[in-house]
Amino acid sequence: MTNKKCPRCRLVNFATDDVCRRCGSLLENSARSFREVESAAPRKPTVLKRALITLGVVALLLFAAYASLLTSSSPISYEQQQIVERAINIIEAKGFDRNAFVLRRFVSYRATDNWWNRWVGHADAYAATNFPFQVVTLYPDFFNLPVDDTERAAVLLHESFHLLGHGEEKAFDGVWRAKRELGWTKERYEATRVWRNVHELTMDYAPSLFQCGAEGHSDCTE
Ligand SMILES: [Zn+2]
Ligand SMILES: [Zn+2]
User: Fold this and answer.
1) Ligand nearest 23 Cα, by number?
2) Helices 149-163 and 97-105: crossing angle, nearest 10°?
3) Which CATH architecture has domain 75-210?
4) Order of strands across the sheet with 135-138?
């Protein structure tokens, strides 16, 4: 119910009053104009309300998309979680704090492809990241092919670049530059399958890393 404000003395009367309780002025007309002012006022809040509803719908859709990525794939096992944890520990111990942080705090690790991966296919044989949903799928090759946790750390470091929003070039470039610091050295790992694999892909995605030396064909990071 809307109260009636007196047009002459400004006293707020009850909505049922026809004349002002203080000065006796007629209230009908003033009551109407008072309501008109009221109905005009909420205009701005309506725009805000609409923006909030839009924001809410977007958030809901994003959450639904995220949930669907999880429900269309299966989680990694407890043993696999331990393996992932050891690899992240190496990344952290070698000083890549930011990368270790996102890998540990923001990621849902999955063992099988979700609908997104099945739809677009995946470039990497070991793992795939769905940015910005921070869902990382770890394929059997991630657990089986690396010779040790350091090689798995190299693979996860690659994924951490995707988690931070970077593309393949930056991911391959970043890992190749970081490999020595990570302990993934040419001397020890050169002959492994993961090394040869990553080396080849890095030459494809970040060719400028291999244009050093007198001939212009040497690895710039060695
Ligand atoms: Zn009055
Ligand atoms: Zn990648």
Assistant:
1) 1
2) 80
3) 2-Layer Sandwich (3.30)
4) 108-110, 135-138, 127-130
**Nearest CA-CA partner of 137 in 202, 70, 90, 64:** 70
- Each residue of 85-122: pLDDT tens digit? 999 999 999 999 999 999 999 899 998 888 888 787 76
Centre of ligand 1 from the C-alpha of residue 66, in Å? 61
Measured in Å, residue 60 CA sits from the centre of ligand 2 at: 28
Joined tokens for residue 158: 């690659």
What is the distance in angstroms between the CA of the first residue and the CA of the last residue of the chain? 80
**What does the pLDDT look like over 43-91, one tens digit per residue?**
667 888 888 888 999 898 888 988 888 888 888 999 999 999 999 999 9
Phi and psi angles of residue 110, each rounded to the nearest 5 degrees, phi first: -120, 155
Give, as residue ranges, everything with CB less than 5 Å from ion ligand 1: 6, 8-9, 11, 20, 22-23, 25
Q: What is the largest CA-CA distance in the chain?
A: 102
In this structure, which ligand is nearest to the CA of 10?
Answer: 1
Q: Which amino acid is at 149?
A: D
